[in-house]
Amino acid sequence: MGYDRSASKRPVNMTLNEDVVRRARGITPNLSETVENLLAAFVDESETQAARRDQQIADHIAASNAFVAKHGTLADDFSTL
Length: 81
Description:
This protein is mainly α. It has one domain (18-78). It is 67% helix and 0% strand. It has helices at residues 18-25, 31-71, 74-78. The protein starts with 17 loop residues before the first helix and ends with a helix.
């Protein structure tokens, strides 16, 4: 999916564990870019999972509707109308 890498940047306030930040700064020269890339990957994966879940729900509804169209429902057999 990706994101608009040309979008303007803005400062945000985050509260992070001091030790993790210190260790991360020793690994990466650009902590903001690293966090942005990790956050983008997280968002992409979350959106992919949500789309997959939505498709599974749609598939289930379609299968259920096809079953009802072919076989009817139990309510049809017990209707008092």
